[in-house]
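A reminder from the course coordinator: this example appears on the midterm review sheet, so study it carefully.

Given structure:
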C-alpha cells in the first residue's frame, strides 16, 4: 500500500499589506486619534471590506464624493489617488483634507503631468472604472487614453504616432501589461516607456511569490475583496502559473469545503489591502480541515515603508511643539 501524499500549505511571502495601504490605514486611525470622530474618508480607503468596517466602528464615515462631507470637516483621500478636480471641490467645500494617496500612485500622476506638458499622447494601461485610473486620467484628461488590456490596443487612436508614451495602473498583472505594451509597440514602434515601471514593487513581489507557490499547488486561495485589483490579479497569476484551481475569498467563511476534494497542496496568499488577521483565519480553517503543515515560500524580501501624509506630520509636529512649550 502506498502512503497518501502529505497535505501541506504553501504560504506565499510577501503577501498582504503593502507600504501604501499600511500608511493609508494608519492615516485614518491617526486622524481619528488626533482630531476625534467623525473623520470622513472619500471612497474605501483601501479595497478591503474588513478594513473599512473596522475603521467605521472607530468613527470613520465613508462617502462617495467630497460634496457629501459637511463644510469644515476632515476628509481623507484614499490610497488610490484623486484627480485635481477633487482637490478643488474639497477646497470649495472648505474641507480639511488629508491626502493618503500612495506615493507610488503620485509618481504616476507626476509622470502623466510631465508627458502632457510635453504634448505627448499618453496610453494609460489599466482597468476602466478603477479609482486609480480615474484619478490619474484626471491629471491630463485631454492627453490620456485608457488601454484596457491587449484586446483594446486595436481601438487606440493617437494624434502623432511619434509622440506616444505608455503609463500604467500600479496594480496590474506584470505579464499582461507587458503583453499590452508589446501589442502597442506593434502599432507604434516609437512608443516611449516610462523611466521606471509603474507597476509597484508590492504588486510585483506578490505576483513573484504566488507564481512560485502556484507551480506546486493543487488549489490556491487568495484572501482579498472582489474590488481589489491586485488581489484579483493574484488569482489570475496563480491559475496561469500552474495552480489547478484558484479562488478569491474575503475570509475563511467563504471557503467551500468541496474545493479541497482531492487536494494535497494548498497555496495561500493575500492582496496588498488585506490585514494578516484574515490570513490567520484561513490558516486556522485549513488546520481544522487537515492542512496543519505550513511552509513559507519567500522568493523576495520586502522592506518598503512610507512616512505619514504631510498634513498629519505637520499637525503632529505642532502638537509636540505646543506640548514641549507648556512643560
Ligand atoms: Fe502603493 Fe503599490 Fe500598495 Fe498600491 S499596491 S497602495 S501602489 S504600494
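Designed residues:
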Amino acid at each position: 500500500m502506498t502512503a497518501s501524499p502529505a497535505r501541506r500549505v504553501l504560504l506565499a511571502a510577501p503577501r498582504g499589506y503593502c507600504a501604501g495601504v499600511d500608511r493609508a490605514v494608519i492615516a485614518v486611525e491617526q486622524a481619528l486619534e488626533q482630531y476625534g470622530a467623525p473623520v470622513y474618508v472619500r471612497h474605501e480607503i483601501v479595497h478591503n471590506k474588513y478594513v473599512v468596517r473596522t475603521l467605521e466602528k472607530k468613527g470613520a464615515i465613508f462617502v462617495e464624493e467630497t460634496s457629501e462631507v459637511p463644510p469644515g470637516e476632515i476628509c481623507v483621500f484614499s490610497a488610490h489617488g484623486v484627480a485635481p478636480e477633487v482637490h478643488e471641490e474639497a477646497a470649495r467645500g472648505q474641507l480639511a483634507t488629508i491626502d493618503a494617496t500612495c506615493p507610488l500612485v503620485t509618481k504616476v500622476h507626476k509622470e502623466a503631468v510631465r508627458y502632457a506638458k510635453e504634448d505627448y499622447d499618453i496610453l494609460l494601461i489599466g482597468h476602466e472604472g478603477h479609482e486609480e485610473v480615474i484619478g490619474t486620467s484626471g491629471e491630463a484628461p485631454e492627453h490620456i487614453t485608457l488601454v484596457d488590456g491587449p484586446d483594446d490596443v486595436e481601438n487606440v487612436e493617437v494624434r502623432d504616432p511619434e509622440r506616444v508614451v505608455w503609463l500604467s495602473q500600479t496594480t496590474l498583472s506584470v505579464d499582461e501589461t507587458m503583453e499590452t505594451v508589446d501589442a502597442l509597440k506593434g502599432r507604434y514602434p516609437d512608443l516611449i516607456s516610462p523611466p521606471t515601471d509603474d507597476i509597484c514593487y508590492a504588486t510585483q513581489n506578490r505576483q513573484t511569490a504566488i507564481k512560485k507557490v502556484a507551480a506546486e499547488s493543487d488549489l490556491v486561495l487568495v484572501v482579498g475583496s472582489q474590488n481589489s485589483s491586485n488581489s484579483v490579479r493574484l488569482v489570475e497569476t496563480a491559475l496561469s502559473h500552474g495552480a489547478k484551481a484558484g479562488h478569491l475569498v474575503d475570509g475563511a467563511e467563504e471557503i467551500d469545503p468541496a474545493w479541497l476534494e482531492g487536494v494535497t497542496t494548498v497555496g495561500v496568499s493575500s492582496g496588498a489591502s488585506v490585514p494578516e488577521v484574515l490570513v490567520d483565519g484561513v490558516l486556522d480553517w485549513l488546520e481544522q480541515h487537515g492542512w496543519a503543515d505550513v511552509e513559507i515560500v519567500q522568493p523576495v524580501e520586502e522592506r518598503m515603508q512610507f512616512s505619514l501624509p504631510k498634513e498629519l506630520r505637520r499637525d503632529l509636529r505642532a502638537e509636540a511643539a505646543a506640548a514641549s512649550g507648556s512643560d
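The CA atoms of residues 85 and 304 lie 30 Å apart. The pocket of iron/sulfur cluster is lined by residues 18-21, 79, 102, 104-105, 170-171, 200, 202-203, 230, 272 (CB under 6 Å).
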